[in-house]
């Protein structure tokens, strides 16, 4: 047992200690690779690892908690302890992290009055139920009980969202009530307004700052705000995230090394990210430009010290050298990558249209008017709205009223329009050719906003929020098909296929030994991919990525099965598995 306290310095067992930490998100890596990443963090010369804990992963539904597989945070903590690393945990209700809805569970939005990140009783009750399950699992791993966890986060960048101090104090009391005894901290932007709004210094909660440049100025600001407390950059941004249709953001390794050199002379540091990993499934976050939601890509490579696939790059060696010069006693050694392999072309085995296999994937919810994704109990993925219109008749015009995020409109299986952001609401001409016309709206939830006041916007409720106007009236009597695609094995490939429709494509291939590989998506349009039932994430022809990363533990020796859900009517007879990532050139923002 020991003590870890915050006074004028960070004190381990009464002696000053400087934390040199790296961010690794266990939920963005397959568990088989956690040890590889932690080993490389040790090789860097770091003495600590930091991670967020996403609420939406650990409580995917109100009545269900998950702490297994990629959500087994205790296993991750135990591995870090075996490597001799301290651990900083960030179990705040909101994490940002460029993660879907900032880690807030989408099921909160089933309550139309819900106000997240506030002292609203309904929100706090939901948080307490989560903490009652989560925090007793974390408490035994704290430093004062023989574990490696030295600090926990109270809230994340709250000063860029609100200043509800009653909310912060309630969270602090809740964390203490459920067994948190190590120091608490907040993290905010390094300017006075953000620090003042988001901190709780008067309650002995350490304020830390997040920034990626002008380190000396940022530390001066933090020191002026909190003069009698130790300085820590809780997130030193050494890279950045990427959005669809934007060029990839890179940062010079020497620049990163110089900033970290400046930081280490005055402060503890957490390098964000050490390894970014992957937004598997539908977990990519969404940023904002003006009033537009801009979803982020599947890769969370972040131009970090280790790549998405665990390869040390120039930044790793630049930072390792800085740490060696600053702390000659730090243990350092050569980092290692992971083997990757090209498996070549894999041929199309079977295909089926979404409309044909719809009965095997979803049971319809019947409603006089459209219901949002949240209202039918769905959190992520796609949702299909179907109604019938009598005919035949003259050319009609219709328009979609208020939908999120991307709408594809079909009449009798024929694609008539795709609308996204500013196009939603534009007129769509179509003809009623049959006695009974089937109108389908396939809507994709492309990821909820993860930062800022837009967390509260009505647009974070997905699907058809308004309706479909034909002539001047709203259509009624809908069949609503939730499509979270968490039952991919239920696709019926014998049901039939039609060109130019959303469809599932199956590719079967055999390998002798699994290694990391990269699915080349450049010939595809838009959709998601599944390997042996695991959702690898989204792809989109807009770039900048032309690949999806497939870690070796998701493959099997012998027969493997890749399923593509392609929404753009693109049929590809063969796909390629490459030994390196590939990209789609984006010369300027197209989003």
Automatic annotation (TrEMBL):
Gene Ontology molecular functions: beta-galactosidase activity
Domain Beta-galactosidase galactose-binding: 502-560
Chain segments annotated as transmembrane: none
Catalytic reaction(s) noted: Hydrolysis of terminal non-reducing beta-D-galactose residues in beta-D-galactosides
Signal peptide, first to last residue: none
Catalytic residues (UniProt): 157, 235
Gene Ontology BP term (one): carbohydrate metabolic process
Domain Beta-galactosidase 1-like first all-beta stretches: 370-484
SUPFAM superfamilies according to UniProt: (Trans)glycosidases (SSF51445), Galactose-binding domain-like (SSF49785)
Protein family according to the UniProt entry: Belongs to the glycosyl hydrolase 35 family.
Matching PANTHER family: BETA-GALACTOSIDASE RELATED
Name the record gives this protein: Beta-galactosidase
Source species of the chain: Enterobacter lignolyticus (strain SCF1)
């Amino acid at each position: 047992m020991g003590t870890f306290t915050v006074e004028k310095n960070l004190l381990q067992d009464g002696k000053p200690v400087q934390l040199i930490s790296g961010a690794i998100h266990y939920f963005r890596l397959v568990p088989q690779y956690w040890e590889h990443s932690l080993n490389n963090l040790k090789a860097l010369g770091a003495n600590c690892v930091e991670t967020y804990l996403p609420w939406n992963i650990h409580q995917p539904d109100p009545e269900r908690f998950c702490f297994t597989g990629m959500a087994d945070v205790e296993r991750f903590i135990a591995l870090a302890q075996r490597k001799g690393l301290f651990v900083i945990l960030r179990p705040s209700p909101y994490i940002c992290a460029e993660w879907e809805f900032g880690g807030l569970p989408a099921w909160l939005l089933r309550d139309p009055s819900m106000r997240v990140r506030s002292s609203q009783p309904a929100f706090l009750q939901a948080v307490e139920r989560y903490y009652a399950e989560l925090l007793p699992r974390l408490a035994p791993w704290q430093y004062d009980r023989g574990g490696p966890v030295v600090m926990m986060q109270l809230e994340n960048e709250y000063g860029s969202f609100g200043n509800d101090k009653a909310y912060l104090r309630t969270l602090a009391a809740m964390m203490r009530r459920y067994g948190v005894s190590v120091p608490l901290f907040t993290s905010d932007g390094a300017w006075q307004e953000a620090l003042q709004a988001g901190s709780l210094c008067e309650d002995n909660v350490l304020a830390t700052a997040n920034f990626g440049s002008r380190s000396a100025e940022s530390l001066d600001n933090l020191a002026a705000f909190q003069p009698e407390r130790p300085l820590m950059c809780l997130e030193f941004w050494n890279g950045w995230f990427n959005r669809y249709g934007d060029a990839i953001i890179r940062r010079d390794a020497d620049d990163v090394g110089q900033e970290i050199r400046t930081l280490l002379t005055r402060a503890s540091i957490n390098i964000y990210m050490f390894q970014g990993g992957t937004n598997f499934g539908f977990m990519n976050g969404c940023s904002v430009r003006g009033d537009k939601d801009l979803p982020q890509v599947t890769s969370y490579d972040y131009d970090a010290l280790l790549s998405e696939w665990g390869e040390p790059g120039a930044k790793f060696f630049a930072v390792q050298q800085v740490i060696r010069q600053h702390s000659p006693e730090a243990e350092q050694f050569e980092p290692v990558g992971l083997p990757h392999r090209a498996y070549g072309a894999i041929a199309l085995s079977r295909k089926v249209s979404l409309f044909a296999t719809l009965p095997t994937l979803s049971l319809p919810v019947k409603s006089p008017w459209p219901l949002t994704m949240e209202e039918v109990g769905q959190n992520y993925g796609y949702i299909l709205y179907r109604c019938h219109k009598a005919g035949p008749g003259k050319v009609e015009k219709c328009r979609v009223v208020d939908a999120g995020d991307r709408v594809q409109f079909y009449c009798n299986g024929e694609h008539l329009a795709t609308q996204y952001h500013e196009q939603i609401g534009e007129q769509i001409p179509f003809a009623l050719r049959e006695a009974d016309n089937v109108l389908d709206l396939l809507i994709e939830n492309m990821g909820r906003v993860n930062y800022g006041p837009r967390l509260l916007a009505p647009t974070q409720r997905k699907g058809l929020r308004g309706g479909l106007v034909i002539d001047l009236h709203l259509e009624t009597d809908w069949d609503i098909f939730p499509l979270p695609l968490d039952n991919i094995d239920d696709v019926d490939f014998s049901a039939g296929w039609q060109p130019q429709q959303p469809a599932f494509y199956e590719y079967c291939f055999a390998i002798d030994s699994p290694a990391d590989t990269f699915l080349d998506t450049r010939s595809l349009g838009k959709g998601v991919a599944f390997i042996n039932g695991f959702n690898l994430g989204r792809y989109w022809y807009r770039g900048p990525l032309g690949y999806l990363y497939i870690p070796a533990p998701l493959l099997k020796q012998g027969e493997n099965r890749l399923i593509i859900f392609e929404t753009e009517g693109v049929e590809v007879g063969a796909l390629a598995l490459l030994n390196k990532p590939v990209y789609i050139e984006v010369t300027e923002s197209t989003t």
